[in-house]
Amino acid sequence: MIRTQIYLTQDQRDELAAVAKITGKKQSELIREAVDRLIDQAGHSRREAVLQEAAGIWKDRTDLPDFKATRAEWDRN
After folding, report:
1. pLDDT, average across residues 56-73
2. What is the mean pLDDT of residues 15-43?
3. Degrees to nearest 5, angle at CA 13 with 9 and 14
4. Could you tell me if 30 and 41 are in contact, meaning their C-beta atoms sit under 8 angstroms apart?
5. 30 CB-near residues (< 8 Å, 6+ apart)
6. How many Å apart are CA 44 and CA 52, to the nearest integer?
7. Which pLDDT does position 77 carry in this prediction?
8. Among 7, 17, 25, 40, which residue has the fewest nearby CB atoms (within 10 Å)?
9. What is the largest CA-CA distance in the chain?
C-alpha cells in the first residue's frame, strides 16, 4: 500500500471516527472502501458515456455489407 495524506473537515473526521467505532473498522479501511466505491461508480459512468457516444456511429455508412441479409442467410442454413 502507498501512504497518502488527506485533509478532512472536523465534521468529516468526527463522523468517520464514529462509523469506525460502530463498525469496528479502522478509519483508513473505511476511506479505502469509500474510494473503491467511487472508482467503481466512476468506471460505470465512463463505460456508459463511451457506449452512448459510440451508439449509431455506423448508421450512415454505405460501404458496409447488408448485415440483416447476411444474418438471414445464416439463419436459413
Report:
1. 84
2. 95
3. 115
4. no
5. 16, 19, 20, 23
6. 12
7. 60
8. 7
9. 70
What's the mean pLDDT in 46-52? 82
Q: Do 64 and 58 meet the contact criterion of CB atoms below 8 Å apart?
A: yes
pLDDT of residue 12: 98
- Counting Cα atoms < 13 Å in the Cβ hemisphere of 51 gives 6
Q: How many CB atoms sit inside 10 A of residue 26's CB?
A: 10
Q: Which single residue is written with the C-alpha cell 442454413?
A: 77
Per residue, what are the HEC states of the chain?
CCCCCCCCCHHHHHHHHHHHHHHCCCHHHHHHHHHHHHHHHHHHHHHHHHHHHHCCCCCCCCCCCCHHHHHHHHHHC
